[in-house]
Amino acid sequence: MTDLKHIRNFSIVAHIDHGKSTLADRLIQMTGTVAARDMQEQLLDSMDIERERGITIKANTVRIEYPAQDGDTYVLNLIDTPGHVDFAYEVSRSMQAVEGSLLVVDASQGVEAQTLANVYQAIEADHEIVPVLNKVDLPAAEPERVAEQIEDVIGIDASDAVEISAKTGLGIPDVLEAIVQRLPHPEGDADAPLKAMLVDSYYDPYLGVVVIIRVLDGKIKKGDRIQMLGTGGKYPVDRLGVFRPKMQDIAELGPGEIGFLTASIKQVRDTRVGDTITHEKKQTATPLPGFKPAQPVVFCGLFPVDSAEFEDLRDAIEKLALNDASFSFEMETSAALGFGFRCGFLGLLHLEVIRDRIEREYDIDLITTAPSVIYHIHMKDGTMQELHNPADMPDLTHVDHLEEPRIKATIMVPDEYLGDVLKLCQDRRGIQLDMTYAGTRAMVVYDLPLNEVVFDFYDRLKSVTKGYASFDYQMEGYQTDNLVKMQVLVNDEPVDALSTMVHRDRAEQRGRAMCEKLKDLIPRHMFKIPIQAAIGGKVIARETLSAMRKDVTAKCYGGDATRKKKLLEKQKAGKKRMRQFGKVDIPQEAFISALKMDD
Amino acid sequence: MTEDWQHGGFGLYIHWPFCQAKCPYCDFNSHVAAKIDQSRWKSAYLAEIQRVAAELPNRVLNTIYFGGGTPSLMDPDLVGDMIAAIRGAWPTANDIEITLEANPGSVETGRFAAFRDAGINRVSVGIQALNDADLRALGRIHSVAEARKAIEIAQSTFDRSSFDLIYARQNQSLADWQAELREALAMAADHLSLYQLTIEDGTAFGDRLSRGGLRGLPDEDLAGDMYFATQEICDTAGYPAYEVSNHAALGSESRHNLIYWRYGDYAGIGPGAHGRVTVGGQKFATETHLAPGKWLNAVEETGNGENLRDAVSGFDQAGEYLMFGLRILDGVDLKRLNGLYRDYIAPQKLLELLELGLVARSGDTLRTTAKGRPVLNAVIRNLLPEV
């Protein structure tokens, strides 16, 4: 057990690419926590996808022992949190487990939207915040201007910001000293009944569920019988330890300490982040308030390209769900795509990560249908239904009105691109809430419908600003609007996987765009194919895909028999990669590409 | 009992693999050689004729076809010796058709009379275009003037002659092609082959296209318009299409090529020649060594130029027959098809195509319609069984 005064618990807040993981690596390295030969980049990010995309998805912790200039050795616990908005809720929970934050800002880039969102969570969690200006070694670095920006935009004192280069190691000792001197030590009563917070949990194939805990009061030892007050689960502690960043067993964890335990817990779903862990016999009288579980906000269908792989897909999804309580799924049948799953995600990045993992780790080719949000359908009988899939839209005669989720989006952008950003937001039915300037960068805040954002908003934003804009959002609740289900009919038959919810005023425009896209995406057939967009029974847009005009081998003589026949057979097999709908073969990419809007 | 191949007849294909220059659109087995030892080649060809004749004895030979490469570069004596050997090895039909492919160069046309004396009774001249700029773009080494001269000589030398044109060329308009085709028909004898330019992988054009070059090729709609214009103009001029790309006055069809399309037996002699031959009631696909030197050595050392012989299953025979038969006016005999492989075509698929008017059925004959022919590949893809 470590003396409270010699513990510092902190997290790092940063925008993507501002150097959070590199700083964490340096802190670990410089304190000798990891031997030089074991050092690798992004030490705390264990998944391939985390390393590849340079992002952190799950929260990770590491315990660092640091001999400070005052002669004492301190235990520093870093909780590395995801930076992306999709995982914002995970961040806010992790923030509750520590007392301070390092705010890392790229001294050449300045404050970004994501920095803001995360730093506000740190402020809300009452953190002491140490601003750290990274990449001061770059020629484009302007530490003074960025410090000023931190004060202007975030409103915290940046006069004694630590200037570092995580890449070269410059200033890292100053960061360690600042952690010890400027962050508060945790409080807690070692003699009180055990009260620990369940910070996060993950599934390990060898150990079962590993639970990350922060002890608030009391002590926990291996062999203790514990109870989780929220779920009621009772377990004996099999193993207790800390991450350095490899697992290392420890005899006891006391107040203020962060570590892990395993307790024969079968799946991550059996644990609830924010739950209070206490002793089964001697329970704490003041449990933590707990957290709401994270709710999926974006839904899409995942279907195997090869329908024979449906069971493999089920297996993959179930395994992934074991370790990710925020990911939901249910079986879905589509006339166009066969059997698959309707899956719920925290956001688009979460969707992409899960999809990539299924394709990569389980080697299953997927068709992903257009993402959708949850609509609230208020029926005439006063009941309310949630709509996760436009294909399930009930008969309009029973529907009173629809509500859609809206978000508050914060976008930071160099002023030369501001006009394009405002137009994009306006085109997506946005309502401007705020616009302020910090130097040459503008910060605009918009109220936007989530369904206009989930699909390709971020791609469009990146393209109109050449990648210079940053974007973050939070959910703002539901609002009534004039929403309709738009169907697409190919060769007079509705294609359920292409149904979307759209705003009535934009339906014609969207319908036209979709029909035009599909006309290009669907190859010509032997007959002409009408492609229509319709609301209810009313066609609002129509295109006709002409019949194939010419596809014949010019020369086919005796010596060509084998080769030309093989070619035709190969082409025929290639058509199997398409989905047959009625008599029409629709290529897989059409299901997503048709919905992209080239504003 | 009649064997299936007898519905198509029996022909001999002889491949001469050498050219003066390789054309950029050509994916045939052709080579440019500095010097050719014609006597060595002659012995090899004669040996192969004897080998094939021993295997397929006592059948009436309907046709001989010298293809290439540029067989008009062969020594006429070699051609004469081969024809004599063939006539000695098989009983030949009274009306045996002996075709030679020719290029319109002066060297070749100068030999036309000698080829006639050697036994050739039909030539097919590779004209390709009646426009000098386009001939250069196609990599041809002759001029329009030479082409006209070659056609003239061919017609005065041989009873039957044909020439080839390529259309849907770079930057060719519909009007350009219509005019050129009318010009061509005015000097045609009894047969014309009109091919849409096809860019094949592994050719110089294929490489250029994949690198983003070869601009100005017509799109599908223009190519379709050109195809239909071709049919209309040729029909009016009395040269209806009896096959996708082949037009002839009635009775002047290429009998040799009809053997392929009617799925008869054909033996292939020379480097890279393919055959379909029925031995002991089983149809085999044969191929000879592709590389000229390799073929020559194999024949000299082992007495056999063949390097592949696969039994063709009834299922695959049905597929090949269908693919060929739908190219020609004759169509496919469904009874014969059923004899090769029972219920090869799914009735539902056939019904769909019949309803779309792409194929038509009368009695047991299934034919591609005028509407179906330009999209024949799609028709065949639909009829091929799912595997």
From TrEMBL, chain A:
Q: Which PROSITE patterns match?
A: G_TR_1 (PS00301), G_TR_2 (PS51722)
User: For this UniProt entry, what is the primary localization, expressed as one broad class?
Assistant: membrane
Entry's transmembrane regions: none
EC number, UniProt record: 3.6.5.n1
Enzyme type, top EC level: hydrolase
Keywords from the UniProt entry: Cell membrane, GTP-binding, Hydrolase, Membrane, Nucleotide-binding, Protein biosynthesis
In terms of superkingdom, the source organism counts as Bacteria
What GO molecular function annotations does the UniProt record carry, in alphabetical order?
GTP binding; GTPase activity; guanosine tetraphosphate binding; ribosome binding; translation elongation factor activity
Which Pfam families is this protein grouped with?
EFG_C, GTP_EFTU, GTP_EFTU_D2, LepA_C
Q: List, for all copies, the residue spans of the domain called Tr-type G.
A: 5-187
GO cellular component terms, alphabetically, are: plasma membrane
Q: State the membrane topology.
A: Peripheral membrane protein
Query: Which reaction is recorded as catalysed by this protein?
Result: GTP + H2O = GDP + phosphate + H(+)
- Positions with a binding annotation for GTP: 17-22, 134-137
Q: Where does the record say this protein resides?
A: Cell membrane
Which family does this protein fall into?
Belongs to the TRAFAC class translation factor GTPase superfamily. Classic translation factor GTPase family. LepA subfamily.
- What this protein is called in its record is Elongation factor 4
Q: Which organism is it from?
A: Actibacterium mucosum KCTC 23349
TrEMBL record, chain B:
Location of the Radical SAM core domain? 4-240
Task: Output the PROSITE patterns linked to this UniProt entry.
Answer: RADICAL_SAM
Statement: the UniProt record of this protein carries the keyword NADP: no
Coiled-coil spans are: none
Kindly give the CDD domains that the UniProt entry links to this protein. Answer: Radical_SAM
From the Swiss-Prot or TrEMBL record, state where the protein is found: Cytoplasm
Q: Which UniProt keywords apply?
A: 4Fe-4S, Chaperone, Cytoplasm, Heme, Iron, Iron-sulfur, Metal-binding, S-adenosyl-L-methionine
Q: Name one GO cellular component term.
A: cytoplasm
- GO terms classed as biological process: porphyrin-containing compound biosynthetic process
Q: Which GO terms describe its molecular function?
A: 4 iron, 4 sulfur cluster binding; coproporphyrinogen oxidase activity; metal ion binding
Report the sequence similarity comment from the record.
Belongs to the anaerobic coproporphyrinogen-III oxidase family. HemW subfamily.
The UniProt function text for this chain reads:
Probably acts as a heme chaperone, transferring heme to an unknown acceptor. Binds one molecule of heme per monomer, possibly covalently. Binds 1 [4Fe-4S] cluster. The cluster is coordinated with 3 cysteines and an exchangeable S-adenosyl-L-methionine.
Name of the protein in question:
Heme chaperone HemW
